[in-house]
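User: I'm preparing a small set of examples for a lab meeting where we compare how different chains pack in three dimensions. I only have the primary sequence for this one, and I'd like the structure in token form so I can line it up with the others. Please keep the answer compact; I'll paste it straight into my notes.
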Amino acid sequence: MNLKEEKIYTESIQKLDFEQARIKHVLFKSKLRALLFGANINAEPVTSTTDCSLGKWIYDVAMPKIGHMPEVKELEKVHNDMHVIARRLWQQYQAGNQEAALKGLDQVDETAEKLLYLLDVIERKTIL
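Assistant: Understood. Below is the structure token output for the 128-residue chain.
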């Protein structure tokens, strides 16, 4: 990569804004908790992999620019796993089993740690 290409690449990566991705994830977790505590909010961004803010960031920003990285592919998988868990917890809540749904939040937190770790790794690799 020549100097000009490297500059364009670096500027493009900086636009990924990893801090925004982390914030989007925190908002997702807050919305899931709110749903499981009975808040009357739209469940679609919590249950859908592509309708949530982080999903939009992954598919609209990260994948087109750095989707070739194995860590980005793993991030996509972990993000999908997060929504599988969220859908299961939401279904438990809707079936009247709020206690089990709330206990499942531990699994959300464990998966969130993996997701945030991957964001850190990807950020470090792209900024180097």
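A couple of notes for your slides: The chain has seven helices and no strands. Helices lie at 3-14, 18-36, 44-47, 53-66, 70-94, 98-103, 105-127.

User: Perfect, thanks.
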